[in-house]
Amino acid sequence: MPLRMNLKPGERLILGGAVIRNGDVRSEFLIENEVPVLREADVLSPKTVRTACEWVYLALQLAYVDPKGSEAHRNLLEVLLDHVRQAAPILAPELDEVSELATAGRLYPALKSAKRLIKREKELTDHVA
């Protein structure tokens, strides 16, 4: 079943490693084969990374959109997961889920799980000013 994408005017997405920007009007298209797709809202820029869990997300994102460099990105991901696990053992269940999904090659679900990890990290650190 094809993936239906609706893009707002000017919205960008990564499609199979290419960055695509929509024109001036809303558009819809179908992706008929399996290829990495990330909407602009789900893309984390290296310039905006502030926390350890965001670094985990970035490494995972790179593994997802860059199949040629995926092994290096996955190795970095495992190192980052270990560092976060040591620094914040309370996040172990979320870290384990991300790791298991990534190891199984299910990178898009791992990204969704990493978003939940970032949210949990924020909950734990919000009270610290």
Enumerate the strands of the largest sheet in spatial order, edge to edge or round the barrel: 3-2-5
Helix content: 40-55%
Distance between the termini: 47 Å
Cα gyration radius (Å): 16 Å
Question: Care to give the gist of this entry?
Answer:
The protein has 129 residues and is an alpha+beta fold. Helix content is 49%, strand content 16%. Helix 1 (52-65) runs antiparallel to helix 2, helix 2 packs antiparallel against helix 3 (92-103) and helix 3 (92-103) runs antiparallel to helix 4.
Structure description:
The protein is α+β, with helices and mostly antiparallel strands and 129 residues long. It folds into two domains: 3-42, no CATH class; 46-125. Helices cover 49% and strands 16% of the residues. The chain has helices at 52-65, 70-87, 92-103, 107-125; strands at residues 3-7, 12-15, 18-21, 27-31, 37-39. The chain has a three-stranded antiparallel sheet with strand order 3-2-5, with no helix packed on it. Strands 1-4 form a two-stranded antiparallel ribbon. Helix 2 packs antiparallel against helix 3 (92-103). The longest helix is centred in the C-terminal third of the chain and has 19 residues, at 107-125. The protein is globular and about 45 Å long.
Write the layout of secondary structure elements.
Blueprint: E1 3-7, E2 12-15, E3 18-21, E4 27-31, E5 37-39, H1 52-65, H2 70-87, H3 92-103, H4 107-125
Helix pairs in contact: 1-2, 1-4, 2-3, 3-4
Q: What key phrases describe this protein's structure?
A:
alpha+beta; single chain; two-stranded antiparallel sheet; 2 domains; 5 strands; three-stranded antiparallel sheet; 49% helix; 129 residues
